[in-house]
Amino acid sequence: MLNTLGHPEDNLVTDRASLPTHCATSKQIQIIDTPADRFCTEIVADALKIASQGQKVLIVQLLKGGIRQGHNQAINLAQNLDWIRCNLIRNISISDLNDLELHNFDQLWKHVRGAARTNEYSVMILDDLSLAIELGLISIEAATNFLTKLPADLEIILTGTNPHAAIVELAA
User: Fold this and answer.
1) What is the pTM of this model?
2) Mind listing the pLDDT tens digit for each residue in 112-135?
3) pLDDT in tens, the chain (172 residues)
4) Regarding beta strands 75-78 and 57-65, do their DSSP bridges make them parallel or antiparallel, or are they unpaired?
5) Using CA atoms in the order 25, 26, 29, 35, what is the torsion angle rounded to 10 degrees?
6) First to last CA, the chain
7) Torsion angle defined by CA atoms of residues 110, 91, 162 and 107, in that order, rounded to the nearest 10 degrees
8) Residue 91 to residue 124: CA distance in whole angstroms
């Protein structure tokens, strides 16, 4: 079943179980196929709702930059909801990163893997993992290794376009 998030009024999220997913059979990994270059408000709204229920949530936009952002400068949107982006002055859309940008991306990916192991978060939303794989910034082996070794109590929600087949298989 392929669900995509188009217009906000098409897919209103009312509770966690209603999150539209690409493959809904895995309780630990959900895939939400979102329109290109658009992080949907439904995802943020659902993250806020989960956080308000006392579960710690981390949103990671892997390919989005931001001034004074980075893995060590999380934005705390609400109690129990942290949001991080790469420490870049631009968004990543092609793989031509300079050495500093590549270092900052690698630091973010390292932080994501470490945050998953700490059991600090109940839910981790990773935006554009498949595009990071497509751009060669993360190998498919590294991504699948990360996703197969998640702590049992961590739920991963992957957002973005065109999820990689190997990741879809893990979520099935």
Assistant:
1) 0.80
2) 999 999 989 999 999 999 999 999
3) 233 333 333 332 323 344 444 433 356 999 988 776 666 778 888 999 999 999 999 999 999 887 677 777 777 778 999 999 998 888 888 778 889 989 999 999 999 999 999 989 999 999 999 999 999 999 999 999 999 999 999 999 999 888 999 999 998 8
4) unpaired
5) 0
6) 11
7) 0
8) 21
Distance CA 89, CA 48 (A): 26
Structural contact between residues 86 and 137, judged by C-beta atoms closer than 8 angstroms:
no
Write out the two tokens for 17: 């179980």
Please tell me what DSSP assigns to residue 34.
P
Q: Which candidate, 65, 49, 29, places its Cα nearest to that of 143?
A: 29
Alpha carbon distances (Å) from 113 to 63, 64, 68, 108, 120: 16, 18, 21, 9, 12
Residue 143 burial by CB count (10 A; 0-12/13-18/19+): exposed, middle or buried?
Answer: buried
